[in-house]
Every structure is written in C-alpha cells, then in structure tokens.
Design goal:
It holds the Pfam family Polyketide_cyc2. This is Polyketide cyclase. InterPro entries: Polyketide_cyclase/dehydratase, START-like_dom_sf. The protein is of the alpha+beta class. The chain has one domain: START domain (Alpha-D-Glucose-1,6-Bisphosphate, Chain A, domain 4). It has five helices and seven strands, in the order H-E-H-H-E-E-E-E-E-E-H-H. It has a seven-stranded antiparallel β-sheet with strand order 1-7-6-5-4-3-2. Strand 3 and strand 4 form a beta hairpin. The radius of gyration is 16 Å and the shape is globular. The termini are far apart. The mean pLDDT is 94.
Length: 159
Amino acid sequence: MSAVSLNRYRFRSVWHVCAPPAAVYEVLSDIANYPLWWHEIRSATKIDDETGELRCRSFLPFDLVVRVRHSIRNQQAGLLRATLSGDLEGFASWEIIGRDGGTDLVFDQEVVVNKALLRRLVLIAKPFLRGNHDLMMRGGLKGLKQQLEIRAASRPDTA
C-alpha cells in the first residue's frame, strides 16, 4: 500500500437542521466567521474574497492549518465546494437541501494528510484521526444549530 493511500481520508457527514436552506447557506458560505460558531475551528484568516486559512483543532493535541479556496458557490443549487491545501490537500463540499421544513446537509471531504508528524504515525494514528474528525463534526453540528437559532431570534418577525 502506498504512502499516499495510507494518508488518504474520505469523510461524509449527513445533518438535518431546523432552518431554511438560505439561512444555512449564508452561515456555511462565510468561512471567515466559522470560529464564531464552530469551536474546533480556532481561527480563520481571510486572504481574499475566495480564500481563507483555517486553524483547526479537535480532541487530539495538534493543529491542522488549511488554506480553503472556494471553487463552487451556488446558492440556487445548494452547493458549496472548496479546494484545500496545507496540512490537508483535497476538497470539502456542502450540499444544502431543503426538506421537511428544514435543511438536510451533506458534507463530503476527500483529503491527503500532508502534516509530517501525522504521515509518520499513519499506521497507529488513522483510527484516532477518524475519531477526531467525528468529534469535530459533532461540534460543528451543535455550533451550526446554535448559530442558526441566534440568527433567527435576531431577525425581525416577517409574519
């Protein structure tokens, strides 16, 4: 098995939130503000209108620094996709689907780990990295739900 295949990861998370797709898209498309609601994303630095740098840390005691560049932003189709470089290289995408008065979200990520320490420890680290990712995604769902509730409460009633 090659080093690249050992360091390749595929993740999929499926969420449901009680908010309209437009509100969900607004939050997810604003990468610079992810640290406000997704606590495992410790910082975000805007580089330009299409690019930012995220510093992520979940349970394991290390940071991943990832440059995120929007490659698709299509609100009508409910699709966000970004290329990733840095400690992780690949892509991440959100599919945003209105359903049952709320929104289904499908998060897909395919990456190769570039961080040297993790590449060296891949044989023992792989299950821990998967668990770390799962914890990060749980934190993201919790934070997204809270952020959507805060935004909904702060909007004037349109009824």
